[in-house]
Amino acid sequence: MTQTTPYAAHVSLRWSDMDAYAHINNVQFLRLLEDARVIAFRDWFDAAGAGDKSLLDEGVLVSRHEIEYRRPLGFRHEPVEIQLWVSRIGGAGFDVAYIVTDPAAADAPGEPPVYAVAETELALYDFAGASPRRMRPEERASLERRLGDRAPFRRRKR
Q1: For residues 112 and 23, what is the distance between their CA atoms, to the nearest angstrom?
Q2: Is-above-0.90 flag for pTM?
Q3: Residues 86, 92: Cα–Cα separation, whole Å
Q4: Cβ–Cβ under 8 Å, residues 120 and 65
Q5: Above 80 in pLDDT, residue 4?
């Protein structure tokens, strides 16, 4: 599969994200990913003609996370850049892949440092009816425009 151009979400760090080792705690990376998804979904679904309901308002649940930490991320005032794209589309859910990076602090020309690579499995849910739901055609069309390869993990158990 050809890689789509990733969506770039800029997410600010919080002082409270730091742990005793003075870097962003590994659990806080999940919040960073969530913040990036919320930013992206607003553009992917609300502004892209995928219906008059927000996917976040109607219902989407996290069913699985996989994350590979590549290097420590220290606190700073500048936001990190989280590149994200759709890596799988199913009948009632989809996966989102991420790369947490910092284009302003490149190790080498043109190669920004990578702090983490991750993938989240999401299930569509109808909060009003309290039940899982199938994907609508307009949602699928929006996701297909963002479809790319799986997350580029170095090692994967499966």
Answers
A1: 18
A2: no
A3: 14
A4: yes
A5: no
